Amino acid sequence: MTCVFCKIASGELPTDFVFADDLVVAFRDIRPQAESHVLVVPKAHVESLWELEDPALAGAILGACAAVARSEGLSEGFRVITNAGAHGGQEVPHLHMHVVGGQPLGPMLTPPA
Ligand code: AMP
Ligand code: ZN
pLDDT at position 22, please? Predict the structure, then answer.
């Protein structure tokens, strides 16, 4: 198994989880882009949102994003982002949602170069 997020989710790479249930784990991004920046990751290897077909897993991921936002205290607002594929700028090919907040976040998109 070479996938870094599979290793984190399985416990092979010791990581502090800010949330975990049967289907999902959440942990802090190593290169945070905001005061609070947590990744919500399914335990099962799903490459990106393009491949996500299981509605129960989709619900678990979205519910975990909400739970993380609440536990991080993001009552002033937050953003949930997933990058998918080459055009989406996805770097880690294991589905993950970025939950970011703790400060004003600015415009959602920067124009393509
Ligand atoms: P992306 O695939 O573009 O949505 O982004 C992948 C994110 O994963 C980046 O924000 C990285 O900083 C983050 N990341 C990569 N490896 C790790 C790791 N071992 N632990 C925590 N975050 C990571
Ligand atoms: Zn994986």
Answer: 98
